[in-house]
Design a protein that fits this description.
This protein is an alpha+beta fold. Helix content is 29%, strand content 40%. Helix 1 packs across helix 2.
Length: 100
């Protein structure tokens, strides 16, 4: 995987009771310039039973792979996440655990 020197990345996180302003505070405390917005995602299982998850979409520019993994480690530990959806411009799209 050719991770360019600098990319825009998108994390999509969700967790029961997640409040995006808590994510914003974490990013601000870490002095990370970013855009955070609330979102709702619909997930359907193989039995066609669907549910809605509340989440936050985090967009951060000027990221290297090392910075991306460091940021994920901070967010994961601080907010008790196991996984998140990660999109790296033209390089990767999927569960961050598959990216690591």
């Amino acid at each position: 995987m050719n991770f360019m020197e600098s990319n825009t990345i998108q994390f999509s996180v969700s967790n029961k009771g997640l409040v995006c302003r808590d994510i914003i505070k974490t990013l601000k405390d870490c002095k990370i310039t970013s855009s955070v917005s609330k979102n709702k995602s619909i997930y359907c299982n193989s039995k066609n039973i669907c549910h809605v998850e509340n989440g936050c979409r985090i967009i951060v520019g000027n990221m290297t792979k090392e910075k991306t993994l460091k940021l994920w480690d901070i967010i994961k530990k601080k907010h008790n996440f196991n996984c998140c959806y990660l999109k790296v411009d033209n390089i990767f799209s999927g569960c961050i655990n598959d990216y690591i």
